[in-house]
Amino acid sequence: MSGKPTGYFLRRSLWPCNLLGTLPMRRISANASRRCSSSEPTKQGNSVKRSQFIPAAESKHDWIGPPHRLSNLRPIIYHIPENETELEKQLRTLRRETEDWNHAFWTNQNITFNKEKDAFVLSQLKEKGLTERDEKGRKRALNSEEMAVFYKHFLDENCIRHANYNKNWYRRNFTITLLMGRVAFHNVWRTLAERRGWKKGSPTT
């Protein structure tokens, strides 16, 4: 068995407000990578386990892991500054909670999609008098026109669910954007205060 790692976390620059792209990637072992991915959700799909990966103490960056096998989303370990302000903590907490919420939604949605798709394919093959696999053991598949019927049905069936997800997603991101603006404003104010020797304090926002 090769010792080459199969998983990794990408290091991300923090300026400004954790928005910029990735810097050179840092790899971790295959065993560690399995611990980095969020665990499989419970039967109800309400539980999301945070990554167990812990960056080095001297790290000043966010870390981005490989896509989760169920949600297809990359987990993020957010950097905690030494002198984290209350606003910065609020921002980091909301971003982490939003990531967990997003992961849980797409994990459950993808599981449901795959189960219903497999059931649809089997039912269509059965109607044709075919088995799941051909004489060579290969899995049979439907053509694009046949699958389009399933895709439309799935989208129609989940229309309200997806609409509610989008509303929540935009609401969360709007709040995150506002918090990021407040954090940036306070950081600029603090820098100016330190340079000019103003009395300790912060602007009202």
UniProtKB/TrEMBL annotation:
Membrane-topology annotation of the record: Peripheral membrane protein
Chain segments carrying region Disordered: 31-50
Top-level division of the source organism's lineage: Eukaryota
Coiled coil: none
GO cellular component: a single term: mitochondrial inner membrane
Keyword Transit peptide listed: yes
Compartments where located: Mitochondrion inner membrane
UniProt keywords, alphabetically: Membrane, Mitochondrion, Mitochondrion inner membrane, Transit peptide
Chief place of localization: mitochondrion
Gene Ontology biological-process annotations: intrinsic apoptotic signaling pathway
ATP-binding recorded as keyword: no
PANTHER family, sorted: APOPTOGENIC PROTEIN 1, MITOCHONDRIAL, CYTOCHROME C OXIDASE ASSEMBLY FACTOR 8
Family note: Belongs to the COA8 family.
Protein name, UniProt field: Cytochrome c oxidase assembly factor 8
Source organism phylogeny: Eukaryota, Metazoa, Chordata, Craniata, Vertebrata
